[in-house]
Amino acid sequence: MLMIRKIEASLHREWSVQWTYILALLGAAIYLVQAFIDAHTTISRLDEGDYLYKGILFATGQYHPFELYGVWMDKAPLAFLIPGYIELIFGPGLRTGRYLAIFFGFLTLLGVWVAALRISHNKWLAVAAVWVLVLSPIVIFTYSEGISQATIACLLAWTLALALGEKRSIWELTLSGFLAGVTIMTRQNMIPVLPLLVAYIFWQHGWKPAIFSLLAGGGVLLFFHILYWPYIMQLWLIWLPKSLPSFFGDLQIPGVGLTLNDLPGESRLLSFFGAFRSDFLVLTGSLIALLLWPKTRAWKTQTDFRTAIFLEALFLILTFMHLWASLILNYCVFCFDSYIAFFNVSGILLLVVVINNLDKNVHPFRQVLLALCVVVIAAGIGYSAFEKIGNWSLGIAFPFLHKGKIVFLSMWTILSNKFLLQQNAALKIASITVGALVGVALLVVVFLIFKLLRRKDLNYAYVLAMTILMLGFVLSPFLAAFKPVCSTDVIAANEQVGAYLARTIPAGSQVYWNGGSSVAPLLYVPHIRIYPVQMEGRTTFRIGGDPQQLLKYGYYNAQLDQQWLNEADIVIVDAGDYMNMKNKLSPDIYNELSSAPIPTSCHAGSQLRIFQRK
Fold it and tell me: Which pLDDT does position 148 carry in this prediction?
């Protein structure tokens, strides 16, 4: 009997292990299916065309990173060189760029699995870590575009997978440092990764591996700075004190830039709480980790403690940096949620390491603070979703006593009559109210569950935290915000439009581009010359300034714009912007050629119109 029980226990363990692999593979399959769907249905945006077109220009040697009178370089060089050289092998276009992003996304899943397994030694937690990404539609959507988020997520996942945990070899830690350097030279906003990583390696693995890691990562930075000196320092101007004299070249840009993101405070709140809808688990999880942070002696191992400190610091510092850039500095107000996609793997791994270490008996003050955070976050999520739930929320009726009778009045009746609110304001207030009520209801339900459990070793905050994490895990796909997708194949449409442009535009033509935010259609037209500054749209437009000084660093003004229009052989304008240019496209000067056979996307006005100088 004892032998039979041992065999049964062994079989149970084997099946348990097999199920983890099955579920992980199932998650990867679901991820890939959704990623391919998103890749083919997502409208191309400015950044995507920028990365892919600059990449092929650099890979073919037509331009070089940080070249004077070349392209605008606001990103580190590998953000363009990596997709560029892949395009050189497989051909330029959205298909190459997006399939590369999907490949990096898959490697990110694998890296998260390996890292989670190394720090938890628990395959079920590793499966859960993978499924956090699988159940995050906005993350998959972001990792399916030809932009740098998937590249950075992959590099960071493997940087952490090689360094976290116990008994890492010298070569693993050295490679981890090297990848951290590559990460920074792909996106300079990831600069905290290397110093924090080296500090963690020193703390966890000792001084020798830390030095090797620092030399490997620092060597990558040094190599690229020597290669592109001095104008690579454009990347760091915003980081340097304004009083610091520039000893690496005159990088002052004349003229005044357009204010493209001067949005009101309510828009910034929408962006902030919209990020909780897109990345609920990592943002809320990092907050829970702080509020239920155990005492130093209560951690299961010193390795868990050190890893949690490193990951919490990394996630919070990167979150604050990107929040400051998007919501305070106006870099891109509604990009905050997509910025988190750069480093959300650090938040996922933080959850993996703290989940079994959370304090189960926190101080009452921290319990109250957690409860308040739940209500505020729920109200904020409601506010960020006001366009979806606002009308429904306004229809909710509340009972009132009127002349001895109970009457029901809708929230819209109350807000419009008593407070004289317009519909837009009423939609937002109603959505905030509903969100807050959901938060309060959750507190009450969890309190009842807590009382039913009758566990003296647990307090209310712990039960609330576990409930939030479980609900967030399951409901993530439903919290996600709107995605700009089409029912048609965007990749095929751009390929068809690009093929038409290649047949229609004479070889060697100088092309003036105003064909939409993304230059993706031009990826399929290799025999033309463009004004590379136009890839950025209005981002690099300046009011005033010396034209040559502006052009030197990839900027332009109205004078240059008019000059390019006057000398271009071909003008491409999308239907949506044609009326703004109609007066400049006189029939006496231009012949209009047949328009592209189909739009580049389902977006209104994305049909391209082509004008040739007589």
Answer: 95
SS (H, E, C) 344-366: HHHHHHHHHHHCCCCCCCCCHHH
Q: Crossing angle, helix 280-291 and helix 265-278, to 10 degrees?
A: 90
- pLDDT tens per residue across span 473-531: 998 888 876 566 888 899 999 999 999 999 999 999 999 999 887 899 999 999 999 99
Phi-psi region of 571 (alpha: psi -120 to 50; beta: other; left: phi over 0): beta
CATH of 490-613, one of 3.30.230, 3.30.1460, 3.40.50, 1.10.1240: 3.40.50
| Burial class of residue 159 in the structure, from the number of CB atoms within 10 Å of its CB (0-12 exposed, 13-18 middle, 19+ buried) | buried
Cut 0.90: pTM above it: yes
**Residue 478's closest CA among 223, 138, 19?**
138
Number of neighbouring beta carbons within 10 Å of residue 550: 22
Cα 2 versus chain centre, distance: 55
Distance CA 287, CA 504 (A): 56
Please report, for the chain, the start and end positions of each structural domain, with discontinuous segments joined by +: 17-241+248-259, 364-479, 490-613
Q: What is the pLDDT of residues 183-233, one digit of tens each?
A: 999 999 999 999 999 999 999 999 999 999 999 999 999 999 999 998 898
Handedness of CA 383, 385, 391, 395 (dihedral sign): negative
- Report the alpha-carbon distance of residue 5 to residue 152 in Å, rounded: 48
DSSP-assigned beta bridge partners for residue 398: 409
